[in-house]
Amino acid sequence: QVQPVESGGGLVQPGGSLRLSCAASGSVLIKGWYRQAPGKQRELVAEITSIGSTNYADSVKGRFTISRDNAKNTMYLQMASLKPEDTAVYYCKATRWPQEYWGQGTQVTVSS
After folding, report:
1. Model confidence over 11-41: pLDDT tens digits?
2. Could you tell me if 68 and 49 are in contact, meaning their C-beta atoms sit under 8 angstroms apart?
3. Contact yes or no for 94/31 (Cβ under 8 A)
4. CA 57 to CA 112: how far, in whole Å?
5. What average pLDDT does the structure give for the chain?
6. Any alpha helices (H) in the chain, and if so which ranges?
7. In sequence order, what are the residues at sequence separation of 6 or more whose Cβ sits closer than 8 angstroms to the Cβ of residue 56?
8. Which end of the chain is more exposed for a tag (fewer CB within 10 A), N or C?
9. Which residues pair with 42 in a beta bridge?
């Protein structure tokens, strides 16, 4: 299966934590996490290279941590100090040049 598969979303109270996972077949390179809130465009949350260099959206710096396990071709997003504005569907992106592959997404809802 080429399409990546996300898991780990759910409902959490403000200030809480969640860990998202993204698994893909070995034929694609998983690249990063994106999110889309209702009525808004999809935006980059965090990305990571194959050697571990990372880049974060300003809105999540210091709260979210992206990591990867190359042996399992799996990527993670540890989210802490969650805010209501983090509520969105979170998507994982993978590539196999020149194609991009997106997962179905996992819903994260931050609410009291």
Report:
1. 999 999 999 999 998 789 999 999 999 999 9
2. no
3. yes
4. 25
5. 95
6. none
7. 45, 46, 64, 66
8. C
9. none
